[in-house]
Description:
alpha/beta; 20% strand; binds S-adenosylmethionine; S-adenosylmethionine-dependent methyltransferase activity; Methyltransf_11
Amino acid sequence: MVDRRRRxxxxxxxxxxxxxxxxxxxxxxxSGGLDIVDLGGGTGGFAxxxxxxxxxxxVVDPSPDALASLERRARDxxxxxxxxxxxxxxxxxxxxxxxxxxxAVLCHGVLEVVDDPAQALLxxxxxxxxxxxxxxxxxxxxxxxxxxxLAGHLSEARxxxxxxxxxxxxxxxxxxxxxxxxxxxxxxxxxxxVHTIHGVRTFADLVPAAFVDSEPGAAESLADLERAASxxxxxxxxxxxxxxxxxx
Length: 248
Ligand SMILES: C[S@@+](CC[C@H](N)C(=O)[O-])C[C@H]1O[C@@H](n2cnc3c(N)ncnc32)[C@H](O)[C@@H]1O
């Protein structure tokens, strides 16, 4: 319960923005549910709730364990018929999901780990139908610079500030992080038009978890604060992640 509450603070904004974007698309699609591809969708944290909303979701992920959890989660929520898991990775996406087959593509926490982000963006663009939506969630460099400094790892903060991939050293488990300017340029090069950019987890990773878990109403207040700060440029610049909605 506590874990779920903390997780929901971290994902609520993304889920809300996505629902608004999909609602706009639903209005142009009389059949109701949309075809959604979740690249690296893992265990279905986004895919299963979207299926519960009536959308047909295909998760493409290289991890068999994640896909097994996805299947269980979909079964538990009674949406197995709307969720399809396919083992594969970003480079294989067009062949696996089908070109121009999706109204929306999700890529949440995945561009950081793929072999070739530019190729992955092109692949996602190719599976989208005209006017389809890309929901992209990427780790932001500035946040890790701040986090390493606040933890007293000042030289690692300095390395992350200047490293081309936004990593704080060779032991950094994250293969790459992004800057807003860099990711929007990459999206433009892949033919996407950016509509909105929100900062995600601006405070959620800074506020002590014990406080959020124990103080009545703290999780709701934190979610409110996150929402209010998410479009503010100064706070967006230090958010752990950037959530970008784009079309192609
Ligand atoms: C941080 S998890 C994010 C899971 C999910 N998108 C979410 O937001 O909860 C990263 C996911 O990317 C998947 N992944 C790793 N390499 C990948 C690749 N080359 N192509 C597609 N997915 C990949 C992993 O198996 C994992 O499920």
